[in-house]
Amino acid sequence: MSDDAIITAFAEARRSEVHLAELPEPAPPAMDRAFRLQQAVTAALGWEQCGWKIGCTSLRAQKALNADGPFPGTMFANRVFRSGDHVPTIASNKRVVEPEVAFVMAKSLPPRATPYARDDVLSAVAAVHAAIEVVNPRTPKGFADPVPWFVVDGGLNDSIVL
Hints:
Layout: H1 3-16, H2 31-45, E1 49-55, H3 59-65, E2 71-76, E3 80-81, E4 96-105, H4 118-124, E5 125-135, H5 147-152, E6 157-161
Parallel strand pairs: 3-6
Antiparallel strand pairs: 1-2, 4-5, 5-6
């Protein structure tokens, strides 16, 4: 399947809150391609990206998903809710709720050649919140599918409650 077709399939699955009937290709993409596809799906959605999530940070989660390590996912402004808000859902979705720590940034930390010092990072944080992430794999077998497809799928992020 072409990259354009993969991008369209994942963007439409996200917009319509349905699962893909099958994976776009029999073999998962290489991780560098998965990251590029994730960026393209984000652009295709046209939603305002408000942040990032890091999935699969514990060894337990990595083992459960057969992941080599953590992976990033996109977060969107239209999927951020406040405590007490109704988070829309469809009964057929495989949503999972996870406790999280959310950092609201006062300023960006763009990529650069030298690592940021601890004080640079701390001064860039405006607030820290307890949060609940709603995870929703849009792949056919959910958490049993290969990890690179999770990356394409925005890190499986559905929404976050602050």
